Fold:
Amino acid sequence: MKKDLANQCVTTCRKSLEMIIKSFFPNSNGELKIEQLSKINYFDRLFNEVANLIRILGNSAMHENISFLKEDAEDVLESTIILSEILFVLNKKVEKLNAIRNKIKN
Structure:
């Protein structure tokens, strides 16, 4: 990727993050919004809620006479993949992003 395109890509990612977070806190700056989401443990609560729902639905599939629709099973699978990526992939991404940050500081 050319340098100007790479910079444009990174800028677009930052703008996308800003738009995502702005949907939660429309009247404050981006940095403060991220801090606010962290202070209210938004991500922890969301993670716990999704994990608990997957557990409950899995228990229902195993122990109750329930037939899940294919679309519903796909939603549960997608949610499970997202949680797995948060646990296993995001940690490595944080390490890589910190390495990039250290590289541009030098």
In short: The chain has two domains: 1-40, 41-106. The two ends are 22 Å apart (CA to CA). The chain has four helices and no strands. The mean pLDDT is 86.
